[in-house]
Specification:
The chain is 0% helix and 44% strand. By secondary structure, the protein is mainly beta.
Amino acid sequence: MLVAALPAYTAPKGTGLPLPRFVSARANVINLRTGPGVQHPVEWVYQRRDLPLEIIAEYRNWRKTRDWQGALGWIHQSMLGGRRTFIVTGAKRPLHAKSEENAAVVALLEPGVVGKIVECPDASDWCQVSVGAFDGWLQRRTLWGVYDNEVVR
């Protein structure tokens, strides 16, 4: 009797991108699930496009994420994009015209404001950002969506 050899099992691979990493919400409504699959219950619904999220694990097409408040859950990869965004945390934050503490303030950003990260230069405590019609610089420690020594271009 001949027995056919079964193909070797290969564990599902992730994207190969570094973990953890920041991404952003691609849609206006995103379900955060308790596990990696639609069979898992929805624990939370995000209703904010461009919200920054941190990917901390991958399983097939699912990404385990953490938000700025520490909430963990799984989101389908199609709901996430590579655009780098941030959310203002803590108190009101001054948006400066230059990457200097004494530079003119072009806007005062409220906690919860979401914007786009334009760049975070190497060895800088500042990130250039865009929020609506305003462009300027924020101190890196005042926003959530970028790591302490990360370079964003």
